[in-house]
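Why should sequence recovery work at all? Because a backbone constrains its sequence more than one might expect. Tight turns favour small or flexible residues, buried strands favour hydrophobic ones, and helices have their own preferences. The token representation captures these environments compactly. In the example below, the structure is given first.
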């Protein structure tokens, strides 16, 4: 069967099958698999097909010629088909994830098996060509691409505007033996904006008053991506945060002053799935009794996968944190934070990072801390979806 005649089965095709399994998804899947097997030799001889032709032949029956999803009445399954022209959804998905889904089928990222595997039917080049065509459906270039949603460091802020919920726990802080949880919620607004709210919950063991716990200083921030260029691999954002004196100062849960914090963040894609991120900030307490502060956080890491190219992602990373008071004679505090991030579920939108923060200069009163976060990329599905 020549490639151009192949279509994924539609309701109409199935109607001509008079057999008792007509409504059985397994039956429909067998039909698709059979069609894919027949497609294999045809596609590999169709080297010259353009990306649009390949898409029209292999994908359009389900995903629609315009990428918005085939007409419901034409489809034999209930699973909603994504809208590739919706930039808010499409731009955030990086090519490697979509490549994996097209090659291996939906289940490789815990999506529905009605999204078939094309790994045997299409060459790598053809899958890439089709992907290039799928990318033309979102025609608003302002949305930074998901490739820039790099693994999150424990301290360095990303430049990508993300939809994430993160719980960070840090334990061990000099004499006060503190356990601190930070609940962070980040939400995108439009193509390049993002707001965030961070609520620390602190538990101190040996303050003057004994054991204290409660809410610390709550921070509210906004981040705006100024520049993102996938061809050059650079993303740059500016932002600002207001840290409110919500924590009780007497109980050492808060600083006792509001703080204004402008910041800039930069992300760089490097060859071989390596990456670099930097985050520079300044802190200006509104109460004149406190010194202003400047800081620079930087990190480098690389992502690998287990069990083949489409497997679970893990990223060893190293951060360098430096911070200095803007007062004469002040010394720069430098910390190193080796850490390890791993995707916990098949969808890869629940991630765990564990690291240690080791002070290397000005170590007096600063102990090594254990720091860890659990991150939920909530746009990609519920917390319990995709395991
Ligand atoms: C038999 C119907 C069918 C065919 C043919 C098909 N798809 Fe799909 N595809 C689906 C369905 C259904 C989903 C949604 C799965 C889900 O959400 O669980 C999907 C999901 C996807 C996704 C994942 C989107 C996300 O949520 O991140 C990508 C990418 C994709 N398809 C690309 C393609 C490409 C490219 C082709 C052609 C090579 C193709 N599909 C052919 C049915 C199909």
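From this structural description, the recovered sequence reads:
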């Amino acid at each position: 069967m020549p490639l151009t005649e192949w279509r994924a089965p539609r309701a109409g095709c199935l109607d001509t099958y008079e057999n008792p399994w007509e409504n059985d998804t397994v039956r429909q899947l067998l039909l698709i698999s059979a069609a894919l097997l027949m497609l294999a030799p045809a596609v590999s001889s169709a080297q010259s097909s353009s990306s649009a032709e390949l898409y029209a032949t292999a994908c359009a029956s389900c995903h629609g010629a315009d990428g918005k999803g085939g007409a419901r009445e034409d489809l034999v399954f209930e699973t909603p088909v994504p809208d590739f022209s919706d930039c808010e959804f499409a731009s955030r998905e990086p090519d490697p994830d979509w490549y994996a889904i097209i090659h291996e089928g939906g289940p490789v990222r815990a999506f529905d098996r009605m999204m078939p595997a094309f790994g045997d039917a299409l060459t790598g080049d053809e899958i890439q060509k089709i992907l290039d065509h799928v990318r033309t459906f979102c025609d608003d270039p302002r949305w930074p691409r998901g490739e820039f949603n790099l693994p999150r460091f424990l301290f360095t802020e990303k430049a990508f505007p993300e939809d994430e919920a993160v719980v960070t726990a840090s334990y061990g802080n000099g004499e006060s033996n503190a356990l601190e949880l930070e609940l962070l919620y980040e939400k995108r607004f439009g193509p390049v904006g993002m707001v965030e709210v961070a609520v620390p919950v602190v538990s101190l063991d040996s303050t003057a008053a004994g054991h204290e716990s409660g809410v610390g200083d709550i921070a509210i921030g906004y981040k705006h991506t100024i520049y993102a260029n996938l061809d050059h691999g650079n993303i740059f954002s500016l932002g600002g945060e207001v840290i409110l004196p919500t924590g009780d100062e007497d109980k050492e849960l808060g600083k006792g002053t509001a703080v204004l914090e402008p910041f800039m963040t930069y992300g760089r894609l490097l060859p071989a799935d390596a990456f670099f991120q930097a985050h520079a900030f300044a802190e200006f307490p509104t109460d004149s009794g406190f010194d202003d502060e400047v800081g620079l956080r930087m990190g480098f890491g690389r992502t690998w996968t287990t069990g083949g190219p489409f497997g679970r992602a893990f990223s060893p990373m190293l951060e360098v944190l430096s911070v200095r008071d803007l007062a004469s004679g002040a010394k720069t505090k430098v910390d190193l934070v080796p850490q390890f991030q791993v995707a916990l579920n098949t969808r890869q939108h629940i991630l765990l990072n564990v690291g240690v923060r080791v002070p290397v200069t000005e170590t007096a009163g600063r102990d090594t801390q254990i720091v860890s976060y659990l991150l939920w990329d909530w746009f990609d599905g519920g917390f319990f979806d995709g395991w």
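A few observations help interpret the result. Confidence is low (pLDDT under 50) at residues 1-23, 40-47.
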